[in-house]
Prior knowledge:
The complex is a heterotrimer. Chain A has helices at residues 3-30, 34-37, 45-54, 61-73, 87-122, 127-141, 144-158, 170-200, 203-210, 215-237, 239-252, 258-268, 271-299, 301-305. Chain A is mostly helical. In chain B, helix 5 (117-132) packs antiparallel against helix 8. Chain B starts with a helix and ends in an 8-residue tail after the last helix. Chains in contact: A-B, A-C, B-C. Chain A binds chain C through residues 4, 7-8, 308-310, and chain C through 22-27.
Amino acid sequence: MNITYFLTKFARALITMLLVVTFVFVVLRITGDPAQTILPEDTTEEERQEFREMWDLDKPLHVQYLRYWKNLFHGSMGKSYRDKREVSQIMAERLPKTVYLMSLSILLSVIIAIPLGVKAALNRNTFIDRLSMSTAVFGFSMPNFFLGILLILLFSVKLKLLPSSGSDTWKHIILPLITSSVAHIGSYSRFTRSTMLSVMNKPYIRTATATGLSRNSVIYGHALPNAAIPIVTIVGTSIGRIISGSIVIETVFAWPGVGRLLVTSVGSRDMAVVQAIVLFLSISIVTANLAVDILYGFLDPRIRTRKGGK
Amino acid sequence: MLKQLNQETFLQGLFRKVPPLILISIAWLVFIIITAIFHKQLMPMDYRTTDLLNRIAPPAFMGGDSKFLLGSDALGRDTLSRLIRSIYTSLTIAFIGSIITAVLGTIVGFIAAHFKGIVDEILMTLVDFQYAMPFMIMALLVLAFFGNNIVLFILLLGIQGWMRFARLARGMALSAQEDGYAVAVKQLGATPFRIYLRHIFPNVSNIIIVQFTLNFPEKIIVETSLSFIGLGIQPPETSLGSMMSYGRNYLMGEWWLAVIPGIVIFLTTLAMSLVGDWVRDNLDPTVVK
Amino acid sequence: MDSSSSIIMEVNDLVCHFSIKGQGFLGKRKKLRAVDGISFDVARGKTFGIVGESGCGKSTTAKLVLNMIPPTSGEVVFNGLDMTSLRPSKWRRLRAEMQMMFQDPLGALDPYMTIGKQIKEPLDIHRTGDSNKRKEKVLELLESVGMENYMYDRYPHEISGGQRQRAVLARALILEPQLLVCDEPISALDVSIQAQVVNLLKNIQKERGITYIFISHDLRIVKHICDRVAVMYLGKIVEEADRRELFNNTAHPYTRALISSIPIPDPSLKRETIILPGDPPSPVNLPSGCRFASRCPIVIDKCRESEPPLEDIGNNHKAACYRIGVK
């Protein structure tokens, strides 16, 4: 097992997280006294003082910085001034909703996109190929909020089949799910198609075909495993875009997740909540990218078996 | 007579070389750009004028008054005028933003390639960081702290996608340095400034331009998305995104308030992407490696 | 500055080590001895050849003598001026006097600029003459390197390989340098064109009295064009002599092997070809004794223990070998 490979990736992920946390810390401080920015206008002076002590705001900057980390590790990120509750508590309520929507969306996209892309690559210039390419172009050009609105107009307003907002029943997730999946189905399938095409042109695939292997065992035994690595990468690294998308989609469908919470908190400048969400989302993205790198290491035998340090 | 013949062959050549879909896309883009440039002359009335007697007028094609070709909103403002003004705002912002991105990214890429070593490491770590950190989240964080004003908003959009330009420019500059022509010109006694401006930049400009055409539709989508969730362009100014945001409250009856600007966004980004892809696939292979 | 001396360039104990990174996260840095202590003098108006296999450090030597990369130690004296410690602006001005011709002419030319503009560029950089004079000079030079006027407006990909190398030569000559370093200038060309370019180089030397440092792996061409030749092996000069002396009175076994590999056009002539076993050792892990010991057909124990110095063996002929005279 190549330890160096994982150590390098892990070190990179740690540096990125460090940068994110520091970035938030710096932005918070260069905009003025956090006790003024974070706390609402009607806070009493005692409350402000208490807050300053908790975050060591009267101490030198490096002490503040260390304290900031310590508080993060204890999961204490302050209180929302809008409903006066701990931010961690609010997050605990909102987060499952977002994870639910996002993970279903990734699952749906992968299930549809990969077979579509493989089919398109194997049947170039046929209907299925054009379909997958058009979906990709469509998904890239269609703003998700417009797609969401069109779906609401059709299914909620005109056909009155599905609800347009909320998250109470299984019916509520259908429209947000479709909206967030379309773009990803497009990009995943386009990528699967081009990867498969380039793999199918490799000498080892032609050799496998020449030795008389059946078409299916060439495709599923040789081509797809080789194409899998870049596909996994592209899915993993699209987490950032999925999160960005969820911010808009949750707003369109009034889906009570962290994306919508972020938008309303930015609007009302509820800083404690904004800070917590930004940190949380960035760290999830970095972790996802790290997971992809590690998975990549396991999938690629060249990385898996290469000795460290050689 | 002869001139006419030449024109015909030119047009025939154009139609032969360029697929019809691309021609339609170009036509749409030209139409949109002209609308943006002449928005003042084209608006039938002021986009801020309210007319409380004519609230929520349906568009002319749905049997409405011809005074409001595309109907009016709940304050009686003319949708067509607002649409034209929004096209101007959204296009201008996306254009300035894309230029900032291209210049910023290219310069960073050149700096990384030129100084190498620790400078390169730091800048490339920043690039990786930017790839990992979605622009939307960064934008929301900054908007939350600094509040919203148009200059900050444009600068912020200028950051979106800079890392792709930086990577491209760095890669191209590095390969140019190794390739020889930069080494050759350097040993002729040229200053680094001359090498980058006269030699490396012309060599990478094609690729930068293609990246620009791919970045531009992204900019439109990002700007309209932020305006749609209420954190971008603020009233009384209007953009395609904020028009949709407003129209979203009238889906039950006056669906066109949201759908009309949506169609304009969609067609514009679609046309841009198609043309951008086409240009990328048809660049002269002898001059671009 | 002493520009009347018969020696135009003096190279003293020039060393260039590269630090290369080992693989892996904490890979150890290793030292690659590209050029490991070489000295030679270049006579004005003559052609000095440097030959050797690929990887022997001859291209690095070319860059070092032009000071395009900094040496680890040692000095390069050009017309009495030490070049190794020049400020960038002074260095740039000196480019007018020393120029380089590259191995790959397509790579050395900017694909987005016309040939004429590129040849003219050195004049623009060094602000010589006005724009009419500059263009006139370019056209003049195009003619003297055997190119037609219309090539002025062509782009590099529109002309042939031989034409490109002529253009590179014209660009190098336009500032009327005293020294031209040619790094494998013809090895990327078709055999049929190689001779043309070599003859062109010779004619230009005759007309302009320019000095060449000619770097090549091909002894045939070196024999054709050079007045004095240095043979390099793994970063060191193993033998150096005037051309006739080197070919008629070869001292070093490595040079002998190189010469024996030159094909002879007459099949009736019999000659023993010396085939060297194995590859040269890596310049990262050099053996302690003579660098050539592992492949030498006449090696003795002494060769493995200490490195033979480069010594004058008479007739202005230097060689680094303990076994001179042994065949």
